[in-house]
Design brief:
Largest sheet: 3 strands, antiparallel
Number of domains: 2
Shape: elongated
Distance between the termini: 60 Å
Mean pLDDT: 77
Helix content: 55-70%
Structural class: mainly alpha
Number of strands: 3
Strand order of the largest sheet: 2-1-3
Strand content: 5-15%
Amino acid sequence: MTDLLRNYSEALTGWATRTAATMLEDVNRRDRQAWQELAAEMSHELQQEIRHAPTGVAMRGLLDEQVTLIKSMPLDAAKRVHELTLKGLEDSTRASEIAKEIAASGQVTASRANLIARTEVARSASVLTQARAEHVGSDGYIWRTAGDGDVRHSHKQMNGKFVRWDSPPKLSDGTTTHAGQIYNCRCYPEPVLPE
């Protein structure tokens, strides 16, 4: 079964690449549109800079990372099945009980897929915003949260603070991340642009 899931993971490469590319292009389109709305208030020269920002490198890096995440799901499922089987042998668990646990793995995989999708959309938006902002000379951003009760305490502490693009902050929970670039984060960077 593990070999089959490993082969399945490799067979997903084309689909994973197309899926990640479609998602990234959608995020890029929305980010570009937000920048264009902001650029309407700026000089013509700055508008042109934003339109021609080199986001290709960021997009390629995000695509590679997202394809790897998508392809890892069947491998994680295979690992879970293997671990459940070994545990069952060690504990003399009945095959029917192991089968129930293996069936529940589908729910784990679906939950992980949703987590990956939410995280990667937010992370992609944050990375593309950073690429465009740095291209026009921004040194950093103001950390903004979603402003509701679901915001992590460590992220609430960052709300309104200036963060340099080249130095992601270490938060009070021990993580080091930019706004919007960690699992389930709905925060976003508000670029500080040069005069």
